Amino acid sequence: MWHAISGRKHDVFSGVCVGTSKQKSSIVVQTHVEFQSLTLNDMEEYWATGEPVGKAGAYAIQGIAARYIPCIDGSYSNVVGLPLYETIQLLKALKVLN
């Protein structure tokens, strides 16, 4: 996985759907993530931390992997897991939140 993203940009997509008994709303959030070029040593050291195990994309942007990411375009929380801002906006639109 890390060979595939090394020195490249990739997209992270999350779909969110919220609803009440009367209505529902959904959105797909896209974030562009840029990785620096990684050496085999970079990859082996990161794997040895245990952080990438069980992670979609084999990295945790909120952890050690942040050192390899010079830039993102879009929602940070989308890359972490749940796009919070967009989810809150959906809930507000359905008047579930103020």
Automatic annotation (TrEMBL):
Molecular function (GO) terms listed? nucleoside triphosphate diphosphatase activity
Look up the domain of life of the source.
Bacteria
- Answer yes or no on keyword Acyltransferase: no
What is an annotated GO biological process for this record, any one? nucleotide metabolic process
* PANTHER family in the cross-refs: BIFUNCTIONAL DTTP/UTP PYROPHOSPHATASE/METHYLTRANSFERASE PROTEIN-RELATED, BIFUNCTIONAL DTTP_UTP PYROPHOSPHATASE_METHYLTRANSFERASE PROTEIN-RELATED
Q: Which UniProt keywords apply?
A: Hydrolase, Nucleotide metabolism
The protein's name in its UniProt record: Septum formation protein
Q: Which organism is it from?
A: Acinetobacter albensis
Keyword Transferase attached:
no
Q: Which cofactor does it need?
A: a divalent metal cation
Q: Which SUPFAM superfamilies does the UniProt record give?
A: ITPase-like
